[in-house]
Structure formats: structure tokens, C-alpha cells
Give the backbone structure.
Amino acid sequence: MTSSPAKAVSPLRAGAPAGRKLPWLEPAVVTGGLIPLAVLGLRAATGALGANPVAEALNQLGLLALVLLIASLAATPLQRISGWTFPVRIRKALGLLSFFYACAHFLTYATLDQGLALPAIVADITERPFLLVGFVALVLLVPLAATSTARMLKRLGFARWKRLHRLAYVAAVLGVAHYFLRVKKDTTEPLIYAALLAALFAVRIASAVLPPGGRDHGTAGGLPRSMK
């Protein structure tokens, strides 16, 4: 009797984390991720953003974008170190939340700080290095968010999609550089995020030299799945 041919396993299925389904997990992460925005809006409405509310809003939105991006990059290393399966289930949500806050950060700058004056915005970005670095980071996140679905993964092909989504690391480096150039004096916090990012790079390099059986070759389709 001949055996039936093995059923092909798609990258989507191959990369699915083991364990029971948690349909509430991603909605809970998205809801929790939007709470800071609601708090920021409440503070703005009650005049609790300090003497320079626009600058405070810009700082908070930019920091949220950076924290969420690094958190999405940390999902796979955390899974490998801890054995927990939930990090890989939420990295797409974390990555898209990061993109959302990065867009909110830029739009706050363009509208409230610059009054949508395009010539002034262009001049400001081209003349101030920290703005240019931050803007490039945002631009790099656009194609990652646009190709964050399983449909786009299938359309691009796994190998090409994975190469594209490695830009998430470049965006994170630029995000840290943007923060570092912005604070000027006390660089303690930017250096902390730089150290975290360096640690993630170290895990990536270590994973590259592991035997093939010890690597995670799967993908769940989405921005953070590029952050293996």
C-alpha cells in the first residue's frame, strides 16, 4: 500500500504557536494599547499637559511608538527564552499599534506644531537632523504596515516578504537615534532603548548560528512577524 503524499504546510501554519487559542488576546492588546491615547486626550481636554501641551503630546506619542516597536521586536526572543507562546500572537498588534502612534506623532507635529504649512514642514525636516531621521523611520514603517496581512504575505512570497519586514529593525534604530538627537542633554532613556535594541540584535545573531531545528521559520503574517 502506498502512503499518501505529505500535506504541504504553509508558512502561516508552520509558524503558528502551539497551545490553545486565545481569541481575546489581540483585541485585549489593541484595547490596552489605545488606553494611553485616551489618557493623553483627557489630559489635553483638561489642560493637564503642562505649559507646552503640543511638545508634551509629541513626546508621549513618539515614545509610545518606539516602545511598542521594540516590544514587537522582542516577541520572538521572549518566546525562545521563556517558552511562552503568547508573544508571537500579539506582535502583529504591537507593530501596528507602533505604526499608529508614529503616524499620530507626525500628524500632531504637522497640524498642531506646523499648521499644515507644507513648505515649513519640508524645510524643518530637511534642516533638522533629528526630524529627518524620525521621518525616515516613519516612511520605513509604511510598507510594513501595508503588507501586514496574510494576503500580502502570500502575494509577495515568504522570502521577499521576510526581507522587506527586516526594515523594522532599521526603523527601530532610526527611532532610537531620533529620540537620542531630540533630548540633547540627558540621554539616559535613549541609551536604555539602544541597549534593549542591541540585546535583540544579539539574540538575532545567536539564532542565526543555531542548528536549523532551533530556529523559528514561521510567520503569522503581519508587521511584527518580520522581527524574528
In short: Residues 86-113 form the longest helix (28 residues). Confidence is low (pLDDT under 50) at residues 1-18, 214-228.
